[in-house]
Fold each of these.
Amino acid sequence: MPAPEQPSFERDVRPLFRELDVDSMSWLLDLTQRDQVAEHADSIVTQLEIGSMPCDGSWDEEQVALFRQWVAAGCPE
Ligand code: HEM
C-alpha cells in the first residue's frame, strides 16, 4: 500500500490563504512564504484553533487539521 502523501506548502497550505489574509497579515508575516509561515506555525495553529483568525470567520475543521498535519510533518515545502 502506498504511504499517505504528506501535505506540501505550495500545493496544500499556500492555497488556504486568501489575498485578504496575505494583505491583512503582512505587518506580521508573509503568508505566501513557507519559511515565515513555518516560523510562526505555533501561534498560527493557536489562532486557527481558537477561531480568532481569520478575523472575518474561522476555518473549517478540515482546513485546521490540514494545517496541523503540515506542521506535524515538519513544514515541508
Ligand atoms: C488564515 C488567515 C490568518 C492567519 C493564519 C492569521 C494569523 C495571525 C496571527 C498568528 C496573529 C498573531 C496573534 C498573536 O500571537 O497575538 C494575528 C494577529 C492579527 N490578525 Fe491575523 N491571521 C489571518 C487572517 C487575518 C485577517 C483576514 C485579518 C483581518 C482582516 C487579520 C487581522 C489580524 C489582526 C488585527 C491581528 C492583531 C490582533 C491582536 O493582536 O489583537 N488576520 N493573525
Note: Residues 9-72 form one domain.
Amino acid sequence: MSQVELFDDKQVVDRDYDNPMVVLYGKGPNEKCKTCDNLIQIQPGQNKYYKCELRGITHGPGTDHRVNYRACAMYKKER
Ligand code: SF4
C-alpha cells in the first residue's frame, strides 16, 4: 500500500511574500512594516486598522495591512 504525502517537506514557504507589496516591488531592508513611514493607522470606529498608503486604501478589509509584514523595497524610514 502506498503512502500519500500530504505535504512536501522540501517545499519552503517564504513568508516574506505574504506582503503583497513585496510581491510587487521586491524585498526592502530587513525591517517590518511597523517601522515604515508609509504605514498608517485608521480608526473609523472602535477598531483600529493599519493600511499601507502606497498599496491603496479602501474602506474594506482587502487592504488591511499587517504591521509585522516584511518590509518591501518602497520602505521609508520613520522620521
Ligand atoms: S511601503 Fe512601507 S508599509 Fe508599505 S509595504 Fe512597503 S515597507 Fe510596508
Note: Helices lie at 20-25.
